[in-house]
Protein backbone atom coordinates (compact mmCIF):
# COMPACT_ATOMS: atom_id res chain seq x y z
CA UNK A 1 0.00 0.00 0.00
CA UNK A 2 1.18 3.52 -0.68
CA UNK A 3 1.18 5.98 2.19
CA UNK A 4 -0.11 9.36 1.16
CA UNK A 5 1.17 12.40 3.03
CA UNK A 6 -1.69 14.70 3.87
CA UNK A 7 -0.86 18.35 3.27
CA UNK A 8 -2.10 20.22 6.34
CA UNK A 9 -1.63 23.97 6.80
CA UNK A 10 -1.47 24.33 10.57
CA UNK A 11 1.26 26.83 11.39
CA UNK A 12 3.86 28.87 9.54
CA UNK A 13 6.44 27.36 11.88
CA UNK A 14 5.76 23.89 10.35
CA UNK A 15 7.03 24.96 6.92
CA UNK A 16 10.31 25.69 5.23
CA UNK A 17 10.75 28.95 3.37
CA UNK A 18 10.58 27.35 -0.08
CA UNK A 19 7.13 25.84 0.55
CA UNK A 20 5.76 29.10 1.96
CA UNK A 21 7.16 30.92 -1.09
CA UNK A 22 5.55 28.33 -3.40
CA UNK A 23 2.17 28.86 -1.71
CA UNK A 24 2.45 32.65 -1.99
CA UNK A 25 3.45 32.45 -5.63
CA UNK A 26 0.41 30.33 -6.44
CA UNK A 27 -1.78 32.83 -4.62
CA UNK A 28 -0.23 35.72 -6.57
CA UNK A 29 -0.66 33.88 -9.87
CA UNK A 30 -4.32 33.20 -9.11
CA UNK A 31 -4.80 36.86 -8.18
CA UNK A 32 -3.64 37.83 -11.70
CA UNK A 33 -6.59 36.09 -13.32
CA UNK A 34 -9.12 36.75 -10.57
CA UNK A 35 -12.47 37.84 -12.01
CA UNK A 36 -11.50 36.98 -15.61
CA UNK A 37 -12.49 34.13 -17.92
CA UNK A 38 -8.91 32.84 -17.60
CA UNK A 39 -9.32 32.14 -13.88
CA UNK A 40 -8.74 28.38 -13.59
CA UNK A 41 -11.18 26.00 -11.86
CA UNK A 42 -8.86 23.37 -10.39
CA UNK A 43 -11.21 22.62 -7.47
CA UNK A 44 -14.11 21.32 -9.58
CA UNK A 45 -15.73 18.42 -7.72
CA UNK A 46 -13.94 19.28 -4.46
CA UNK A 47 -15.64 20.44 -1.25
CA UNK A 48 -14.29 22.47 1.65
CA UNK A 49 -15.89 22.20 5.10
CA UNK A 50 -15.27 25.17 7.35
CA UNK A 51 -15.85 24.93 11.10
CA UNK A 52 -16.21 28.08 13.16
CA UNK A 53 -16.18 27.85 16.94
CA UNK A 54 -15.66 31.63 17.05
CA UNK A 55 -17.15 34.46 14.97
CA UNK A 56 -15.61 35.54 11.65
CA UNK A 57 -16.23 37.87 8.74
CA UNK A 58 -13.05 37.86 6.60
CA UNK A 59 -11.97 34.26 7.11
CA UNK A 60 -15.42 32.89 6.43
CA UNK A 61 -16.17 34.99 3.37
CA UNK A 62 -12.69 34.68 1.84
CA UNK A 63 -12.58 30.89 2.18
CA UNK A 64 -16.12 30.46 0.83
CA UNK A 65 -15.66 32.82 -2.10
CA UNK A 66 -12.16 31.54 -2.89
CA UNK A 67 -13.24 27.90 -2.97
CA UNK A 68 -16.20 28.71 -5.24
CA UNK A 69 -14.19 30.94 -7.59
CA UNK A 70 -11.85 28.01 -8.17
CA UNK A 71 -14.75 25.72 -9.04
CA UNK A 72 -15.22 24.01 -5.68
CA UNK A 73 -18.04 23.85 -3.16
CA UNK A 74 -18.22 24.83 0.52
CA UNK A 75 -20.13 23.78 3.63
CA UNK A 76 -19.92 26.07 6.63
CA UNK A 77 -20.50 24.71 10.12
CA UNK A 78 -20.74 27.11 13.00
CA UNK A 79 -20.94 26.90 16.79
CA UNK A 80 -23.92 25.02 18.07
CA UNK A 81 -25.06 23.75 14.66
CA UNK A 82 -22.60 20.87 14.84
CA UNK A 83 -22.00 18.02 17.24
CA UNK A 84 -18.52 19.21 18.23
CA UNK A 85 -20.04 21.26 21.03
CA UNK A 86 -22.11 18.28 22.24
CA UNK A 87 -19.33 15.88 23.08
CA UNK A 88 -18.44 14.24 19.77
CA UNK A 89 -14.68 14.33 19.78
CA UNK A 90 -12.66 16.39 17.35
CA UNK A 91 -11.05 13.18 16.10
CA UNK A 92 -14.39 11.51 15.36
CA UNK A 93 -15.61 14.64 13.60
CA UNK A 94 -12.43 14.62 11.52
CA UNK A 95 -12.91 10.96 10.55
CA UNK A 96 -16.49 11.56 9.46
CA UNK A 97 -15.82 14.77 7.55
CA UNK A 98 -12.96 12.98 5.77
CA UNK A 99 -15.58 10.67 4.20
CA UNK A 100 -17.64 13.56 2.81
CA UNK A 101 -15.37 16.44 1.90
CA UNK A 102 -11.84 17.07 0.58
CA UNK A 103 -10.41 19.70 2.93
CA UNK A 104 -11.31 21.18 6.33
CA UNK A 105 -10.70 24.68 7.68
CA UNK A 106 -11.18 25.09 11.42
CA UNK A 107 -11.30 28.18 13.65
CA UNK A 108 -11.23 27.19 17.29
CA UNK A 109 -9.75 28.01 20.69
CA UNK A 110 -6.92 25.63 21.60
CA UNK A 111 -4.18 24.87 19.12
CA UNK A 112 -4.27 21.25 20.34
CA UNK A 113 -7.73 20.88 18.75
CA UNK A 114 -6.35 21.74 15.33
CA UNK A 115 -3.63 19.14 15.79
CA UNK A 116 -6.15 16.57 17.01
CA UNK A 117 -8.24 17.19 13.90
CA UNK A 118 -5.24 16.91 11.59
CA UNK A 119 -4.10 13.75 13.36
CA UNK A 120 -7.38 11.96 12.70
CA UNK A 121 -8.33 13.42 9.31
CA UNK A 122 -7.33 11.69 6.08
CA UNK A 123 -7.76 15.03 4.26
CA UNK A 124 -5.92 18.36 4.70
CA UNK A 125 -6.76 20.57 7.68
CA UNK A 126 -6.21 24.34 7.59
CA UNK A 127 -5.87 26.48 10.73
CA UNK A 128 -8.29 29.41 10.44
CA UNK A 129 -7.18 30.93 13.81
CA UNK A 130 -6.67 29.59 17.29
CA UNK A 131 -6.07 31.34 20.60
CA UNK A 132 -2.34 31.28 19.77
CA UNK A 133 -1.96 31.49 15.98
CA UNK A 134 -3.39 32.87 12.75
CA UNK A 135 -1.19 31.60 9.92
CA UNK A 136 -3.53 32.36 6.98
CA UNK A 137 -3.61 36.00 8.04
CA UNK A 138 0.15 36.35 8.01
CA UNK A 139 0.46 34.73 4.57
CA UNK A 140 -1.90 37.46 3.29
CA UNK A 141 0.09 40.09 5.17
CA UNK A 142 3.41 39.02 3.63
CA UNK A 143 1.77 39.03 0.19
CA UNK A 144 0.48 42.55 0.85
CA UNK A 145 3.79 43.99 2.03
CA UNK A 146 5.65 42.51 -0.94
CA UNK A 147 3.12 43.91 -3.42
CA UNK A 148 3.62 47.36 -1.96
CA UNK A 149 7.30 47.46 -1.08
CA UNK A 150 9.12 44.43 -2.50
CA UNK A 151 10.84 41.56 -0.68
CA UNK A 152 10.24 41.45 3.07
CA UNK A 153 13.60 39.79 3.75
CA UNK A 154 15.83 42.11 5.79
CA UNK A 155 12.97 44.51 6.59
CA UNK A 156 11.79 45.58 10.04
CA UNK A 157 8.31 44.85 11.40
CA UNK A 158 7.10 46.67 14.53
CA UNK A 159 4.23 45.13 16.47
CA UNK A 160 2.86 47.45 19.15
CA UNK A 161 0.11 46.05 21.39
CA UNK A 162 -0.97 42.69 22.75
CA UNK A 163 1.44 39.92 21.67
CA UNK A 164 -1.51 37.73 20.70
CA UNK A 165 -2.25 34.94 18.20
CA UNK A 166 -1.61 37.18 15.20
CA UNK A 167 1.67 38.39 16.69
CA UNK A 168 2.76 34.80 17.29
CA UNK A 169 2.29 33.94 13.61
CA UNK A 170 4.26 37.10 12.68
CA UNK A 171 7.11 35.79 14.85
CA UNK A 172 6.97 32.43 13.03
CA UNK A 173 7.09 34.31 9.73
CA UNK A 174 10.10 36.37 10.85
CA UNK A 175 12.10 33.15 11.11
CA UNK A 176 10.94 31.81 7.76
CA UNK A 177 11.01 35.02 5.67
CA UNK A 178 14.10 36.58 7.27
CA UNK A 179 12.84 39.90 8.60
CA UNK A 180 13.41 41.55 11.97
CA UNK A 181 10.43 41.35 14.30
CA UNK A 182 10.18 43.90 17.10
CA UNK A 183 7.38 43.30 19.58
CA UNK A 184 6.46 46.14 21.94
CA UNK A 185 4.00 45.00 24.61
CA UNK A 186 3.45 45.40 28.35
CA UNK A 187 5.49 42.89 30.36
CA UNK A 188 2.47 40.70 31.13
CA UNK A 189 1.30 40.56 27.50
CA UNK A 190 4.57 39.75 25.75
CA UNK A 191 5.35 36.62 23.72
CA UNK A 192 5.68 33.54 25.92
CA UNK A 193 9.06 32.19 26.98
CA UNK A 194 8.40 29.20 24.68
CA UNK A 195 7.88 31.46 21.69
CA UNK A 196 10.99 33.49 22.49
CA UNK A 197 13.01 30.27 22.83
CA UNK A 198 11.56 28.97 19.54
CA UNK A 199 12.56 32.18 17.77
CA UNK A 200 16.09 31.94 19.14
CA UNK A 201 16.42 28.30 18.06
CA UNK A 202 15.13 29.09 14.58
CA UNK A 203 17.44 32.07 14.14
CA UNK A 204 14.67 34.67 14.02
CA UNK A 205 15.67 38.26 14.71
CA UNK A 206 13.16 38.94 17.50
CA UNK A 207 13.32 41.97 19.78
CA UNK A 208 10.86 42.12 22.69
CA UNK A 209 10.49 45.44 24.50
CA UNK A 210 8.09 47.49 26.61
CA UNK A 211 8.99 50.60 24.59
CA UNK A 212 6.83 51.10 21.47
CA UNK A 213 8.91 54.08 20.35
CA UNK A 214 12.11 52.04 20.25
CA UNK A 215 10.28 49.29 18.34
CA UNK A 216 8.87 51.71 15.76
CA UNK A 217 12.17 53.47 15.02
CA UNK A 218 12.82 53.13 11.27
CA UNK A 219 10.34 50.22 10.87
CA UNK A 220 9.00 49.26 7.43
CA UNK A 221 5.70 47.94 8.81
CA UNK A 222 3.81 49.03 11.90
CA UNK A 223 1.20 46.43 12.79
CA UNK A 224 -1.21 45.93 15.65
CA UNK A 225 -4.42 44.14 16.56
CA UNK A 226 -7.29 44.39 19.00
CA UNK A 227 -6.45 44.72 22.68
CA UNK A 228 -9.19 42.22 23.52
CA UNK A 229 -9.22 39.08 21.39
CA UNK A 230 -12.24 36.81 21.17
CA UNK A 231 -10.90 34.50 23.88
CA UNK A 232 -9.97 37.25 26.36
CA UNK A 233 -12.13 37.78 29.42
CA UNK A 234 -10.22 40.60 31.14
CA UNK A 235 -11.07 43.57 28.91
CA UNK A 236 -10.81 46.49 31.39
CA UNK A 237 -7.37 45.44 32.68
CA UNK A 238 -6.07 44.97 29.15
CA UNK A 239 -7.33 48.35 27.95
CA UNK A 240 -5.45 50.10 30.77
CA UNK A 241 -2.23 48.14 30.24
CA UNK A 242 -2.25 48.59 26.48
CA UNK A 243 -3.14 52.29 26.21
CA UNK A 244 0.55 53.34 25.85
CA UNK A 245 0.90 50.96 22.88
CA UNK A 246 -1.71 52.65 20.67
CA UNK A 247 -0.61 53.14 17.06
CA UNK A 248 -1.12 56.85 16.40
CA UNK A 249 0.45 59.57 14.26
CA UNK A 250 3.25 60.15 16.76
CA UNK A 251 4.28 56.48 16.62
CA UNK A 252 4.00 56.33 12.82
CA UNK A 253 6.32 59.34 12.55
CA UNK A 254 9.12 57.32 14.16
CA UNK A 255 8.84 54.58 11.53
CA UNK A 256 10.39 54.80 8.06
CA UNK A 257 8.74 57.57 5.97
CA UNK A 258 7.82 54.73 3.58
CA UNK A 259 6.29 52.53 6.31
CA UNK A 260 2.91 50.90 5.89
CA UNK A 261 0.32 50.30 8.61
CA UNK A 262 -1.27 46.85 8.82
CA UNK A 263 -4.10 45.38 10.92
CA UNK A 264 -5.80 42.01 10.45
CA UNK A 265 -9.19 43.58 11.34
CA UNK A 266 -11.67 43.90 12.96
CA UNK A 267 -10.23 47.19 14.24
CA UNK A 268 -11.28 49.30 17.19
CA UNK A 269 -10.71 52.92 16.27
CA UNK A 270 -9.19 55.11 18.99
CA UNK A 271 -8.21 51.99 20.93
CA UNK A 272 -5.30 50.05 19.38
CA UNK A 273 -5.17 52.43 16.41
CA UNK A 274 -6.38 55.98 15.76
CA UNK A 275 -8.70 56.74 12.83
CA UNK A 276 -6.01 59.08 11.53
CA UNK A 277 -3.68 56.10 11.02
CA UNK A 278 -6.08 53.36 9.88
CA UNK A 279 -7.88 55.73 7.50
CA UNK A 280 -4.66 57.55 6.57
CA UNK A 281 -2.32 57.30 3.55
CA UNK A 282 0.05 54.69 5.07
CA UNK A 283 -2.72 52.21 5.86
CA UNK A 284 -3.06 49.16 3.57
CA UNK A 285 -5.72 47.36 5.60
CA UNK A 286 -8.30 46.94 2.81
CA UNK A 287 -5.77 45.47 0.38
CA UNK A 288 -4.57 43.31 3.27
CA UNK A 289 -8.12 42.04 3.86
CA UNK A 290 -8.58 41.34 0.13
CA UNK A 291 -5.37 39.35 0.05
CA UNK A 292 -6.88 36.84 2.46
CA UNK A 293 -8.79 35.62 -0.61
CA UNK A 294 -5.73 35.30 -2.84
CA UNK A 295 -3.29 33.94 -0.26
CA UNK A 296 -5.82 31.31 0.85
CA UNK A 297 -6.38 30.20 -2.75
CA UNK A 298 -2.65 29.46 -2.74
CA UNK A 299 -3.00 27.57 0.55
CA UNK A 300 -6.02 25.56 -0.66
CA UNK A 301 -4.26 24.73 -3.95
CA UNK A 302 -1.18 23.51 -2.09
CA UNK A 303 -3.24 21.45 0.40
CA UNK A 304 -5.37 19.92 -2.35
CA UNK A 305 -2.37 19.50 -4.66
CA UNK A 306 -4.64 20.92 -7.36
N1 LIG B 1 -8.76 38.94 10.27
C1 LIG B 1 -9.68 37.97 10.46
O1 LIG B 1 -9.37 36.79 10.58
O2 LIG B 1 -10.96 38.41 10.48
P1 LIG B 1 -12.28 37.57 10.85
O3 LIG B 1 -12.23 37.30 12.33
O4 LIG B 1 -13.41 38.48 10.45
O5 LIG B 1 -12.26 36.30 10.06
N1 LIG C 1 -6.60 38.58 17.86
C1 LIG C 1 -7.93 38.57 17.28
C2 LIG C 1 -7.85 38.29 15.81
C3 LIG C 1 -9.16 38.30 15.09
C4 LIG C 1 -9.03 38.01 13.65
C5 LIG C 1 -8.76 37.54 18.01
O1 LIG C 1 -8.28 36.42 18.24
O2 LIG C 1 -9.89 37.85 18.36
From TrEMBL:
Carbamoyl phosphate binds at residues 56-59, 83, 107, 134-137, 264-265, 292. Pathway: Amino-acid biosynthesis; L-arginine biosynthesis; L-arginine from L-ornithine and carbamoyl phosphate: step 1/3. Its main location: cytoplasm. Keywords: Cytoplasm, Transferase. Residues 154-303 form the Aspartate/ornithine carbamoyltransferase Asp/Orn-binding domain. It comes from the Bacteria. L-ornithine binds at residues 165, 225, 229-230. The keyword Cytoplasm applies. It catalyses: carbamoyl phosphate + L-ornithine = L-citrulline + phosphate + H(+). It is found in: Cytoplasm. InterPro entries: Asp/Orn_carbamoyltranf_P-bd, Asp/Orn_carbamoylTrfase, Asp/Orn_carbamoylTrfase_sf, Asp_carbamoyltransf_Asp/Orn-bd, Orn/put_carbamltrans, OTCase_ArgI. It is an enzyme of class 2 (transferase). Its EC number is 2.1.3.3. Residues 7-147 form the Aspartate/ornithine carbamoyltransferase carbamoyl-P binding domain. The keyword Transferase applies. GO terms for cellular component: cytoplasm. PROSITE patterns: CARBAMOYLTRANSFERASE (PS00097). One of its GO terms (molecular function) is amino acid binding. Gene3D superfamilies: Aspartate/ornithine carbamoyltransferase (3.40.50.1370). One of its GO terms (biological process) is L-arginine biosynthetic process via ornithine. Reversibly catalyzes the transfer of the carbamoyl group from carbamoyl phosphate (CP) to the N(epsilon) atom of ornithine (ORN) to produce L-citrulline. Belongs to the aspartate/ornithine carbamoyltransferase superfamily. OTCase family. This is Ornithine carbamoyltransferase. It comes from Nitrospirillum amazonense.
Amino acid sequence: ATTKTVRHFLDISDFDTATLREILKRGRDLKQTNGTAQHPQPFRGLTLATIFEKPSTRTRVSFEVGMRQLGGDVITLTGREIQLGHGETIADTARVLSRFVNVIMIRTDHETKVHEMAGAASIPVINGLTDTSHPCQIMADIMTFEEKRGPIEGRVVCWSGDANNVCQSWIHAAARFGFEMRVAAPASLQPTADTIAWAAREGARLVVTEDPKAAAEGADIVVTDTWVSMHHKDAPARMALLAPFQVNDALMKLASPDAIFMHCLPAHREEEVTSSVIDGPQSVVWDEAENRLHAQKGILAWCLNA
